Amino acid sequence: MTALNVITQPDAAYILTDTAAIDPDGRVVAFASKVFVSERARLALAFTGWTPETRFNERHTRCAAFVNSMGDPAVALERIAQFASELWRQNADEMEIGSPMHLSLVVAFWSEERGQPEAWLIQTDSLSKGHTPKPVRLCQYVAADPLTGLIPGLADGLALADVSDPCRFDPMRDCLPLIEAQRRLPDAEREGEFNIGGQAELYQIDRRGVTRTVLARWSDRIGQKIRPDGGQSRKRWSARYAA
What we know:
By secondary structure, this protein is α+β, with helices and mostly antiparallel strands. The protein contains three helices and 13 strands, in the order ββββββααβββαββββ. It is 20% helix and 30% strand. The longest helix is centred in the middle third of the chain and has 22 residues.
């Protein structure tokens, strides 16, 4: 599990994620960005799913080179679906039977033809490698209590919001409390274990290119399990990738 959020608004798409790679025992094995950027295509791709630990550095380098080679984003979607199939096959060949081999890839880019951002989801599962890109059009992040407007299990006061509406959801303001709340949610299958750590990174994709902003740095350590009540640094900084 990781935090992999995609938000589309009229003038920009956003990808919000963490940087921790976790082994099946819940220990941090590495910290690395899960988002890969093509400056030329004004495109960002993020993926989540189990990676064989021995293949982590190799896969990270391979993903970076693949995305950097992107040209026309519309043409890139088919290539990305094929790439997801290749990663799935590698998992199937190298991971033990019963291991979670599925992957999820999100790609967001600026469409010059449409004059707006687009976001697409490509998913595999544990049994097959068939994937068809699906458009992502999020209007509501998660279900909330209809009376209070609050999201059960997340941070107190984190209200339901239409994330596609810039007037109601400001990613630079609201994404940090969102991912902080996600960080405190335990793993659905491993009681008492947590998966979101390292840094909170927000990528903005618009007509000018791609901007990366670090929203928070948490005090997680390689070889240790994530403890969401640990300290953090909230010093924010940004870097823009030239288009």
